[in-house]
Amino acid sequence: MLLIPCPHCGVRPETEFVYGGDATVRRPDPKTASLDAWAAYIYERDNPKGPHTELWLHASGCHSWLVVERDTVTHAIGQVRQARDAAS
Amino acid sequence: MTRNRTAEGGWLIDRASTGSFTFDGRRVPFLAGDTVASALLAAGDPLVGRSFKLHRPRGLFAPGAQEPNALVVLNDGGRLTPNARATTIPATPGLQVRSQNRWPSLRHDAFGLLDLARAVLPAGFYYKTFMWPASQWLRYERLIRKLAGLGPPPRMADPDIYARRHGHTDVLVAGGGPAGLAAALAAGRAGMDVVLAHSGPAFGGGLHDRGDGPHRAWLAETLQALAALPNVRLLANTTVAGYYDNQTLTLAERPCDAAPVGDGKPVERFWQIHAERVVIATGAHERPLLFADNDRPGVMLASAARRYLWRYGVLAGRTPVIFGSDDTIYELAADLTAAGATVRAIVDLRPDPGAAARRAEAAGLPTFAGAMVARAHGKRRVTAAEIWRLGPRPHLVETMQADAILTAGGFGPTLQLHAQARGALLWDPDFRAFLPGPPVADNRSAGGARGVFDLQAAIRDGDEAGANAPLPLRPPPPAADAPAPWDLPNLTGGPRFVDLQNDVADKDIALAAREGYHSIEHVKRYTTLGMGTDQGKLAGPIGLALLAAATGKDIAATGVTTFRPPATPVTFGAVAGGDFGEVGHAIRRTAADAWHEQAGATFIDAGLWRRPQFYPANGKTVGEAYRAEALAVRAGVGMVDVSTLGKIDVSGPDAATLLDRLYCNTLSTLKPGRGRYGLMLREDGRVFDDGVVFRLAADRFHVTCTTGGASAVYQHMEHALQVIWPELDAYATPVSEEWFAVALAGPKARTLLKAIAPDLDVSNAALPMMRLVETRLFGGRARIMRMSYSGELSYEINIGANRGAALWQGLVAAGRPHGLVVYGTEAMGALRIEKGHVTHAEADGRTTPADLGLAGMVSARKDAIGVPAQAFPALQEADRKQLVGLIAEAADARIPVGAQVTAEDLGDQPRPSLGHVTSYAYSAERGRMIALALVRAGRGRIGEAAFVVSPVMGESAAVRIVDPVFIDPEGERLRG
C-alpha cells in the first residue's frame, strides 16, 4: 500500500487515487506531429526499474492530478506536485 | 476421560473452571484455558484426523498454527468453519468439533484402503492418470474431490459480525514471546506508538513452555510495565498475516475467542496497519525427523510435548520415547518423568552426548547414544519404537514399547514476514537453516526469528530491536554434532513423510527429481509439498534439503519457494468484514426511488445506481412488460427516470475551447439555449462516451454523459484541464446528483408537458429539437430540453433533486388522463435499438466513429482528442467490424444470447464468425426480434441473409442484415 502525500489533503492511502501512467510524455503538436509521433504518444511507454515520474489522480479526494516521483523497486515516494504546476 | 492430565501445574489452565465440548459427537471435558487440542490429548487419544491423500490416521503433531494434522470443522450451519487448527482454537463450552476428511467415521475410514495403494499413488499420480481423455476430467474431478478434500464449506450465511480497522503506528511488533515483549517494552518506553500482536491468548510465548524460574517474574513485570504504557496497544489472539509494500501489514484478530459467539461483538477483526518500523519476533519452528511411519498418531514434536506439559498439564504420552540430537531431550525426559510419565528411552543421534546424557542415565533413564528411532509401530496410535544403532553396520537394538515418540530435530527461524517483505533468505550450513538476510523494508527480525534461540539472548535481542539498535552479527549457531534430519538413513523401509498434511514422502521428492523437476517451485506443485494450510512451515526445509541431495546441488543453490501472504490462514469472513450482501457496495437511489419501489419495479444495477428495469404491473414477465411499455411510448406517452445519466457543468472563458478539444465534433458554434449530440473519443481513436451538450451561456455548458461513463468522463476532463492543457481557463463540476431527470416520450409528450407547465410555450416553434428552456415546476428550478433517445417526440426535464419526487408524482397524476405509462431500462433499450442509437455495448472500447457509422461527426478542422488517430492504417482497414441492424426472418424467431453472426446456419462444424450481436430486443413496430450487431465490412452486406448462432446455447436464427435504424429513418416523429 502506497502512501501518497497529496499537497491539498495530506498523506493518503493509494486506494484513494487512480493511476495515470508516465507523467513525462507530452501530447504532440497536432499541427506538426507525424503518425509515428502519435503512435509513440498513445502506445509506447517505458517500464523503468527505479525512479519513475507518474500521474496519480486523487479521485476520492480533491480531484487533483498529481505528478508523483516513485521508485518502482522500493516504492519510495519522492516529490509530489500538482500536474498543473509541474507543466508550467 | 482425562487420563493424560497431570496432577498439578499448567501455566494457562484454571483447574477450578471446567466445561465440555463435543468431538464427533463425543463429550470432551476441558479446563478453562485449554485449546481443543490440549483437551483432546488430555482425554487420551491423539488421533484427530485423516491425511489428505492416503487417509492415513494422523495425530496431534506440532505446537501451534503450523499443526499439519489436527484440522477440524467447528460448529454448524452458518457458523461452520472448516480447516480450523485444533491447536489454536480455545476450548469453549458447547463448541462442536468434528474431524474431517474421513467417511463414515474417524476410526473406520472407508478410504483408508487408499493407504494400501500407496505404492501406486506416487507424486503426480493424479496429473498422470486423469489427464486423458480430457472430456472426462470433470467426472474425475468430482471423484478426486470426494477422496482428497479438506473440510466442507458452510452452506448458510454466517450470522456473526466481522469488523475491519485501519491504523497507523510507529512500531509494530509481530509476536508476543520473550523477544517481542522486550521489543515492545523498549519501543514503548522510548515514547513510540507500539502495536504488539500475539497469535495466542497469553503473551509470553515460549516462556510458558518451560518450568518455573526467574523468567516468570520477568514476564509478570514486563506485562505490568506494558499495560501501564498508554502508547502500547496489546492485541492478543492476533496473527500478523501479511506484510506488503510500504510497510502495510494485515492482522487477523479474534477478539471474542473466550466469549460466547454472537453477542453482538465481532468474532474477527481484520486490521490494516501502516507501521513505520516492524519487529518480527515470530519465533522458530522445530523440524520434524525422518523415520519410517513417522506420521503415526503419537509421533509428536518435542516442542509440542513441552507445550502440552507446561501450559496445560497434559502428557503427550504416558510411556514416551524421546528422540533427538541435543540436550533438550534430557530436559524433556526429566520434566515428563517428574510429571508422572515413564520415559521408555532417550535416543540421541550423537555418538557422544556428554554430561546431560550421563546424568539421565544415572537417574535411571534408559539412554541410547549414536542411535535413532528408525520406525514407529502401531496404526491408529504408536505402540512401539524401533531403536537402531547407527554406525558402519546399523542394527536393531530394541523395539521399545511406547505410546508416543517425541522428536527434537533442531529449530529454524520463522521467515514468512521477513520474506514477504522481500528480505533475502540466507542458507546457513551451521544452523542447518535459512536465516533472514539483511531486511529490505523497515523491519528487523529478533529472537528465534533470527536464530537467537537462547532465552536470555532472545530477550536482549528483542530489547535492542525495540530500541532500533544496529543489527548485530549472525547469532552463534547451535552445536551440530549429529546428522541433519534429512541425512538420516531409511533403515527399515516404509514411508517417511516430509509433508504430513499432503502425504508427501521422501520417495516422492526423489521421484520428482528423477522425472526432471529440479526447481523447488516445480517440485512443490508436482508433489504438493508445502501446499497445505500449514504452507510448508514444517516440511519446507526438509523437502528442500532432500531435493538438493537428489539433484546433487547444495541447499543454498536450490533456493526456496516464494512466501506469500497470509502467513497463517485467515478466514474469508475476516477479509470480507462488513462488505457483503446488501451493504457490499453503496447503492445510489434517484429521487423517485421510493415511488419505483412502491410501484413494484424490478431493479437493475447501473454502476452504483439502481434503476427500474421494468414494472411488473405492465406485464407478468420482463419480456411482456417491456414490450407493453415500449408500445405505449410509440402509441401515446411514456416516462422514464433518467436521473442516473452523468451531468457535468463546464464553465469558464475557455469552456467552449475545452469542449471542442474533448469532443470530435464542434460544440463551440452552439448558441446559448441550444444543444448538440457530442461524441467523445479516446486518444487512440476509439469512441469513449457520448451525450448531449447544451450551452447555457457564452461561458457555461451542461454536459451529459452515459450512466456508466460519468466518473471516467469527469476524470478525463480533469486530465485535459490539469495535465494536457493547463493553460485553459475552464472548470468542470460533476452535478449528476444535483439534478433529478425524467424523459417524456411519445406522440402525446407535448400534451403532457403542457399539462404541467400551462404558462410555458411548448409549441414546436418555441421549443424545437435541441432547444433548452429554464422554468419553474413544482416549486423548483427546472430545465426542459427537447431531445430524443427513443426516436419519438421527447423532452427531458431536469429539476433540483430535492424536488424530484414532486415532479415525478406530479407527472404521474397529470399523465393519468393521457394514458401515461412509466417504463424502465429494458423498454428504453428496446426503443433505442429500434432507433439505432449506440450504447457501450456497441461503443465497446474497440469501435471508431466510422465503425459506428458516425464518421461524419469527426471534424478535421480543429484539434481534438482522438482525431489524429483516425488516420492510423489499422483504423481504416476495409474489413473492420461495422454497425449494422439485423432483423429476424421469422416472426417467432429468437435471437440467442451472446450470438455470433455467420453466413451459414449452426451445424456440426464451427462456422467462421462475421461478427457479433451487441444488443437485441423485440420490436413491437416491426413485429419481430431485431438486433444491432458489429459485422465485418457490415455496411457492404446490407440486404444479405445471415444467421445468428450460439454454439453454447445450441440455438440459431435466420436474419437479414439491414440498416441499423429500424424506425422513422428521416426523424419526422422526433421533430414533429
Characterize the structure shown.
The complex is a heterodimer of chains A (88) and B (976). Chain A is an alpha+beta fold. Chain A has a single domain, classed as Folate-binding fold. In chain A, 16% of the residues lie in helices and 38% in strands. In chain A, the strands form 2 sheets. Chain A has a 4-stranded antiparallel sheet. The N and C termini of chain A lie far apart (30 Å). Chain B has 976 residues and is α+β, with helices and mostly antiparallel strands. Chain B folds into 6 domains: 177 residues, FAD/NAD(P)-binding domain (3-Layer(bba) Sandwich); 126 residues, FAD/NAD(P)-binding domain (3-Layer(bba) Sandwich); 77 residues, Arc Repressor Mutant, subunit A (Orthogonal Bundle); 146 residues, Probable tRNA modification gtpase trme, domain 1 (Gyrase A, domain 2, 2-Layer Sandwich), CATH 3.30.1360.120; 92 residues, 2-Layer Sandwich (Alpha-Beta Plaits), CATH 3.30.70.1400; 99 residues, Aminomethyltransferase beta-barrel domains (Elongation Factor Tu (Ef-tu), domain 3). Chain B is 22% helix and 27% strand. In chain B, the strands form 12 sheets. In chain B, strands 8, 9, 10, 11, 12, 13 and 26 form a 7-stranded mixed sheet that branches. Chain B has a 6-stranded mixed sheet with strand order 38-39-40-37-31-41. In chain B, helix 4 packs parallel to helix 10 and helix 17 packs across helix 22. Chain B is elongated and about 115 Å long. In chain B, 52% of the residues are buried. The chains are: A alpha+beta (88), B alpha+beta (976).
